[in-house]
Amino acid sequence: MTTTDTTWDTAQVARMSGVTSRTLRHYDATGLLSPAWTGSDGRRHYGREELLRLQHILTLRELGTSLDRIGQIVDADDPTTTVALLRDHLGALTAERDRYARLASTVARTIDSLERGRPMTDDQLFDGFAHKKYEPEARERWGDDAVDRSNAKWEALGKDGQQRHLDTHREVVEALGAAIRVGFAPDSPEVQEIVAKHYAWVSLFWTPTLETYKGLTQMYVDDERFRRNYDEVAPGAAELLRDAADVWADRNL
């Protein structure tokens, strides 16, 4: 049983919360979380109020909030505001929990389908996936209008059209892998045909110029998340697409 007078030192708080002692020291240095008091030996001690603040900080961290923004939120010295913010955080966490539960169910159904030969619908295959995971990044990179138009076109495709679009991209990736294994050069007719298909696939939502298409395929190489999608079929597939896109764009855009 704890009381309002109970305090915990840095090591105890670190064990309870999973936050390192170094992080707690950093939070203290930046004013994000100061201890209730510091002993003559330099050890920091935290009370119930500080633990509640730390919980709030960690909740916001889990939701991807920046430290600067976290400081603004937790410094709101108004219990009503704090409770309202925590309710919002609870809603976001509950939604994420539910999504992970759906993902777990999807994986379980897939295992059952593979082991027992039970068919799955398209909706079941992709239930729980965060299709808009990278939307904030896309909005920052290309602007709200471009992303809004792209989202509208995606929704307009319907389930069948969306699946065909996903299938087309998979065909492009597999074709690049095959080209790597065979040893086709970027400017070969076979690889140029793959690039043409990829450009058409991209253009369903956004029509790149020569510069932006080259920039897009360069990003596939520079960004590990995208490169992994292409290189999973054969190492070097992302670079082949970029090099081939340079040739194709100079010829056709």
Walk me through what this model shows.
The chain is mainly α and 253 residues long. It contains twelve helices and three strands. It has a three-stranded antiparallel sheet with strand order 1-3-2. Helix 7 packs across helix 8 (144-182). The model has no long low-confidence stretch (mean pLDDT 78).
Determine Rg (CA atoms, Å).
Answer: 25 Å
Major sheet: order of its strands?
1-3-2
What share of residues is helical? over 70%
Globally, the shape reads: elongated
Mean pLDDT equals 78
Low-confidence stretches: none
Order of helices and strands: EHHEEHHHHHHHHHH
Cα end-to-end separation: 72 Å
Q: How many strand units?
A: 3
Fraction in beta strands: under 5%
Structural category: mainly alpha
User: In oligomeric terms, what are we looking at?
Assistant: single chain
- In DSSP terms, counting alpha (H) and pi (I) runs of 4 or more, how many helices? 12
Q: In this structure, how is the largest beta sheet organized?
A: 3 strands, antiparallel
Notable traits:
72% helix; 3 strands; single chain; mainly alpha
Brief synopsis:
With 253 residues, the chain is mostly helical. It is built from 12 helices and 3 strands.
